[in-house]
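pasting input
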Amino acid sequence: MKVAAKTANEAMAEAMRQINPDVVAAYPITPSTEIVQIFSQFVADGLVDTEFVPVESEHSAASACTAAAAAGARVMTATASQGLALMNEVLFVTAGLRLPMVICEIARTLSAPINIHCDHSDTMDQRDTGWMQFYAEDSQEAYDLVIQAVKITEEAFLPAMVSADAFILSHSLQRIEMLDDKDVQNFIGEHKTPFSILDTDKPITVGPLDLQDYYFEHKRSEAQAMRDAGKVIEKVFSDFGKKFGRKYNLIEEYKMKDAKRAIVLMGSTAGTAKEVVDTLRADGEKVGLVKVFAFRPWPTEEVNQALKNAEYIGVMDRAEGMSGFGAPLFTEIRSSLYDENKNPDIYGYVYGLGGRDTTPGDIKKVFDDLKKVENGKKLDRNNYLGVRE
Amino acid sequence: MAKKKEGWKELPIGAIIVEPGSSRKFKTGDWREGKKPVVDKDKCTNCLFCWISCPDSAIIVKDGEMKGFNLDYCKGCGICFTQCPVNAIEMVDEEKE
Amino acid sequence: MAKDLIEIRWHGRGGQGAKTAALLFGEAAIDTGMYIQAFPEYGPERTGAPVSAFNRLSKKPIRLHSGVDSPAIVLVLDPSLLNTVDVLEGLGKGGILIVNTPDSPGDIRKKLSVDPGIEVYTLDASKIAMDTIGLNKPNTPMLGALAKVSDILDYKKMLKSIEHKLKIKFRGKPEEIVTKNMEAIKTAHEKTKGEG
């Protein structure tokens, strides 16, 4: 273990070096360019054995990685925003073929209007692809989640993306604790694949036409893999926690035990929200926070358990969703809690689009709003935080 | 062929096909719409253009010699007939045989 | 918010190394066991355009991920920014302003109508950089000034850490680049002036 100063980009690139994947095919895009740039230096310096493929687009990056995964390789890439959007078509293929793969993803908004800064529109756009999704709060989590994602993706037979907020994390230097190279290797172990297109002793066909008589069964099986992935994730998180002392869960509860008012969100803003929770707690307010680590698979039971005592809930989405109703996280939370006996009052807040700064004051406003609701005031079901009227 | 199809739990993941050469089980010979190829071995030079061109691997070749057609798989498309450089292959009505 | 959290804002122009200074200071703080953040404000970066960079430092883990809006210390790497950027924004009582300028702290106080509760320090970091490094790169001299007027880091430990980091940064370049930068920091540490 060593203490180091790393941006999330640097931390994820270091994790990739320690993982030493067989194949990395990548195309640069702001703000994830550094991940690929630093990693390609590792390749040039001979620090990894990776076959590095500098492809001509993100579509090709995803395609090359998917094909290499089908050949039994441990594969990784990095991207953001428009790059992830360009991968979209292939992401369904990776998941549909049930191949392991990890994307180091930097959460940047999507055009138009053009903007390079943080929000979760890009990953929310990919939520139905069959990829697992993890959201980091800081460099440390980005680093730890990438290492764990390798094992998760190989055991769940589903690909995974680990997302860190653009600039706020990708370009912010922070203190992290790095594992020893050999500990990472021992933890992830050797990649064993049940089938490979290059195994001539056990030939297989990958990607055949699959029509009305079988397609549905294969999709049903893929859906089950996502339903079962939570258990795989918990097992890997638990192994990691036992070995290295940093234990992750599908969600993180912060001062939720007796919390009457709660905020639910994902990513870097969770840290800011914890500070606000502490400040309000010091004034005797019963407030808490639920941070969702794994958006896919959606952790229904864990979320419901964490929110079982909350009466007023503000769900903060760093993506609009453009549904004409609620944003993605809001609708998941509200839908999850529908089956519970209790009927908490849930409000949606879209925040931080295009990198708009989200201050402690903004978060306090959500808690204040919920208090007003408690005192009988009416509040719109869906709200926008920090936008000029 | 009235086999019960597998449920989703029984199928290999990712829609992969784990049995090599399973396409042999799929006999496409009954797709022919009345015409089948015949070869005149007196004209045939064993150039094997037919063998290269056949989309169903239905040309039988042994020791470098074209030996005829595997009608279990021949769909009667006639590509061999059009490709043969010495006009040794004819498409004939199946009923007349 | 946590009271032991120190926030610093660096003002510069693209190419002057404000971001690098923030990173170097942050890394030096990590070497002394502190928790840090160091990040630039990203916009349409162009050489010469006004840019800013930030530090957060604490003995405890830092969880805040919002922008820095009430810094304890503000450093200005280019005197021409005083006319175009509100460098005093968010700087409250007990705050420190450090400016790269040949002018005296008193002149700067008058020019910007600085609140009496804020301390002002100046140094001619550009001249120091020209004399030592041979280029107008005022960022490393400003680190010397920061070490002099604040007790966030132990000066000697900071020097050692920065020297190590510069050696890595300038790996493959003549070693005198590191020595000259270190000289710039030390000269700046001596020459930084306060009022009175």
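fyi Chain C has a mean pLDDT of 94.
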